[in-house]
Design a protein that fits this description.
Structural class of chain A: mainly alpha
Strand content of chain A: under 5%
Protein name (chain B): Respiratory nitrate reductase beta subunit
Oligomer: heterodimer
Distance between the termini of chain B: 43 Å
Radius of gyration of chain B: 24 Å
Largest sheet of chain B: 5 strands, mixed
InterPro entries (chain B): 4Fe4S_Fe-S-bd, Nitr_red_bet_C, NO3_Rdtase_bsu
Largest interface: A-B, 56 and 67 residues
CATH class of the largest domain in chain A: Mainly Alpha
Cofactor (chain B): [3Fe-4S] cluster; [4Fe-4S] cluster
CATH superfamily of the largest domain in chain A: Transmembrane di-heme cytochromes, Chain C
Number of strands of chain B: 15
Largest sheet of chain A: none
Keywords (chain B): 4Fe-4S, Electron transport, Iron, Iron-sulfur, Metal-binding, Repeat, Transport
Number of domains of chain A: 2
Helix content of chain A: 55-70%
Organism (chain B): Streptoalloteichus hindustanus
CATH topology of one domain in chain B: Alpha-Beta Plaits
Helix content of chain B: 25-40%
Number of helices of chain B: 26
CATH architecture of the largest domain in chain A: Up-down Bundle
Chain lengths: 245, 522
């Protein structure tokens, strides 16, 4: 283990996470107007209607898989009686399925962005950087899952990468765990850290605006331009509405 | 009873000559920016025609507005809440740019910079979206005055439900213009479909707005609006819509489209309504009863009980006076000559229309009748299935009796006033036929035909006591952000202290953007 390993597996994660958190605070406070999905469905709908659901559903699956793989210690699943073999089959099946969905969705969306002149023109420089990093993360991730674990000799990331990852969050990073990790997993982790650092400055912020509250709120919203003057004032400016069907 | 006030509009279609002044002044005011090139908060359509965007009235395709489910409960036509969230990644009902049109500009520079040559230089059309050369094949008013009607107009969804076939040969067809803005509905589908809660109806005056800072670009409002009057700004990635020129309304001034209408066909005023009755009205089982149900939800500003309830709700005294003098209230509830556009969408729209008599009068002349003779006109109204059925499909969910009644009232008014001015005689049979008194008839005539500025627009200004709330919006207004509707080369200084310099002598607040400042206080 040398200085480079410490920079890559200790310094870089903390820098990326700090930028991730502070960047989001800054963006939220200063740029509500820029906080949007920046939809291009108006400009091109046919490819998007295939590509966007594939990409997003695949990502949700992948994120769920990462949460289980990285956050749940191996000892826990073993204690539950899940055998190494069963775990491997489930993780690999889910991982390969997610990879197929995400990659096919991403290819469709990137092709759409390159080929369709309307969409290409709305693509900002930051968008291009984001697509490059995002593609790298997904390519390395797919390389690890499909190339190494499905077709290759396999690698148990739960004894190295997952432990290192959890260590970051309780301020006990163990860079030595990452030193002997296969290159493709190292590159996946590093490109993901770059992605986290970029996140608050890109359109990815729309992820935090998933409108779950829509499921409960009244249909029609009224807002008062001024505080109500009368005694019959109803509480709350927003949401002071009747509930629809 | 929960009394709420709403600024509403009525348009007298007989007076619309299709000059598009409203569209142009609106566009200059609100949407002459990158990202909104294709957006017309106000557009004027020629009917019959497919409209803008193409076939927007075909709700089997676009699934806008509301419908009743099997148990008679109101639900958005595009599905429930869960379904909407599942469609966040790709909205199946969203019109594409080509359903509107691809905006273009011309390469005028070539005309003065082209090198000397044998051919005259040509200004080519360039797409405003891609900058590439393009062929212009559609526009927001492509069908103006029935241009291309034999080819396109049969696709008009309003024709589908008609028993007789509309002919589009030049000699045998009919047409009228239909100016359209946001309906500022009582039961807005766009607000109900917005997952972020960024869209809202202003409690004071009913204006439906998009909070630019809270919009996240989920684009559900665009497809949920059956009138397709919410748009995506493709540069900012946010929804934008007709604002009812709320800064002008707050200053007691009419909207830009109304102010600049050469035909003076627009009326603006308050309508009081019972907010507790809205849901039931929108859930009326039979679509042809929706008109009456909506009228029943409106309240009579002369009723002392309504006044008391309104005051208790915090509606100011001068607003109640304005509601009593409201031309819109008179045309909708008193004379009952104004009708809502597509009540069957169940959004309870608040921009109503006086149906045009001119297509009928044209037909009377053709049949060698006298368009000035009420008998001939009455006969024609009853006999003409077209365009009566067509108008009914637009304004009364297909009930031709209601449209015929309104047209006959308008024809009777013409006949009555014609006799009054020619030989001073009073046609009592026309008064009995319409059930109106002579005074009422002449009053309606003055409102419709003379249409003085102060009779057409009765708009109470926002109050000075609101200044603090207004100023707190100040520069926080999302409209002023980069690419937002408030952005432009204008003097932004005026924007920054608009709430301070707009003081008027009548004790109300106005915006210095529209009201001449009387001296700076800051």
């Amino acid at each position: 283990m040398n200085a480079v390993d410490v920079v890559l597996w200790v310094v870089l994660p903390y820098v990326a996470l700090t930028v991730f958190v502070l960047g989001h605070v800054w963006r939220w406070r200063t740029d509500q107007f820029g906080w949007t999905t920046h939809t291009t469905q108006l400009l091109e709908s046919r490819w998007l209607r295939l590509g966007a659901p594939l990409f997003h559903l695949g990502l949700l699956l992948a994120i769920g898989g990462h949460a289980i793989g990285l956050l749940v210690p191996k000892a826990w699943t073993e204690a539950l009686g899940v055998s190494e073999h069963t775990y491997h089959i489930v993780a690999l099946g889910g991982g390969v399925l997610a990879a197929v969905l995400v990659v096919s969705g991403l290819v469709l969306l990137l092709a759409r962005r390159l080929v369709n002149g309307r969409v290409r023109r709305t693509t900002t420089r930051m968008d291009k950087v984001l697509y490059l990093v995002l593609s790298a993360v997904i390519a390395f991730g797919t390389g690890g899952t499909v190339g190494r674990n499905l077709l290759g000799c396999g690698y148990d990331y739960r004894e190295t990468i997952a432990v290192w990852f959890r260590g970051i969050f309780w301020f006990h990073p163990e860079p030595r765990l990452m030193v002997d990790v296969p290159l493709v997993f190292q590159l996946h982790a590093l490109s993901a850290l770059v992605l986290f650092g970029l996140w608050p400055f890109t359109r990815l912020v729309h992820v935090w605006s998933v409108p779950v509250a829509y499921l409960w709120r009244p249909y029609v919203l009224y807002r008062h331009r001024r505080p109500r003057l009368s005694a019959s004032a109803r509480p709350g400016a927003v949401g002071d509405g009747r509930r629809g069907a | 009873m929960r009394v709420m006030a709403q600024v509403a509009m009525v348009m007298n279609l007989d007076k619309c000559i299709g000059c598009h002044t409203c569209s142009v002044t609106c566009k200059q005011t609100w949407t002459n920016r990158e990202g909104t090139e294709y957006v017309w908060f106000n557009n004027v359509e020629t009917k019959p025609g497919v409209g803008y965007p193409k076939r927007y009235e075909d709700q089997d395709r676009w699934r806008g507005g509301w419908e009743l489910d099997r148990r008679g409960r109101l639900k958005l036509r595009s599905g429930g809440r869960v379904r909407r969230l599942l469609n966040l990644f790709a909205n199946p009902d969203l019109p594409a740019l080509d359903d509107y049109y691809e905006p273009a500009s011309y390469d005028y520079d070539t005309l003065i910079t082209a090198p000397a040559g044998t051919h005259t230089p040509v200004a080519r059309p360039k797409s405003a979206i891609t900058g590439e050369d393009m062929a212009i094949t559609w526009g927001a008013n492509w069908e103006d005055d029935l241009g291309g009607a034999p080819e396109h107009a049969p696709a008009d969804p309003n024709l589908a439900a008609m028993t007789e076939k509309v002919r589009f040969e030049f000699e045998r067809t009919f047409m009228f213009h239909l100016p359209r803005i946001c309906e500022h509905c009582l039961n807005p589908a766009c607000v109900s479909a917005c997952p972020s809660g960024a869209m809202y109806k202003r409690a004071e005056d009913g204006v439906v707005l998009v909070d630019q800072n809270r919009c996240r670009g989920w684009r559900m409002c665009v497809s949920a609006c059956p009138y397709k009057k919410v748009y995506v700004n493709h540069r900012t990635g946010k929804a934008e819509k007709c604002t009812f020129c709320f800064p002008r309304l707050e200053a007691g001034q009419p909207t830009v489209c109304a102010e600049t209408c050469p035909g003076r066909l627009r009326y603006l005023g308050l309508v009081l309504y019972d907010a507790d009755a809205v849901l039931a009205a929108a859930s009326t089982p039979d679509p042809t009863d929706l008109l009456d149900a909506q009228r029943a939800a409106f309240l009579d500003p002369d009723d002392p009980d309504v006044r008391a309830a309104a005051l208790a709700e915090g509606i100011p005294e001068d607003w109640l006076d304005a509601a009593r003098r409201s031309p819109v209230h008179r045309l909708i509830s008193h004379y009952q000559v104004a009708l809502p556009l597509h009540p069957e969408y169940r959004t309870l729209p608040m921009v109503w229309y006086i149906p045009p008599l001119s297509p009928v009068l044209d037909a009377v002349s053709e049949q060698d009748g006298d368009p000035a003779d009420p008998d001939d006109v009455f006969h024609a109204i009853r006999g003409l299935r077209i365009p009566l059925e067509y108008l009914a499909n637009l304004f009364t969910a297909g009930d031709t009796e209601v449209v015929a009644g309104v047209l006959m009232k308008l024809a009777a008014m013409r006949g009555y006033m014609r006799a009054r001015s020619l030989d001073g005689s009073v046609s009592t049979e026309l008064l009995t036929a319409t059930g109106m008194s002579a005074a009422e008839m002449e009053e309606m005539y003055r409102l419709l035909a003379i249409a003085k500025y102060e009779d057409r627009y009765v708009i109470p200004a926002a109050h000075r006591e609101n200044a603090a709330a207004l100023s707190s919006q100040g520069m926080g207004c999302g409209l002023d952000s980069d690419g937002g509707p408030g952005m432009g080369g204008e003097d932004l200084q005026g924007f920054q202290d608009f709430h301070l310099t707009g003081a008027r002598s009548d004790g109300r607040i106005g915006l210095s953007l529209f009201v001449k400042p009387r001296g700076r206080t800051s």
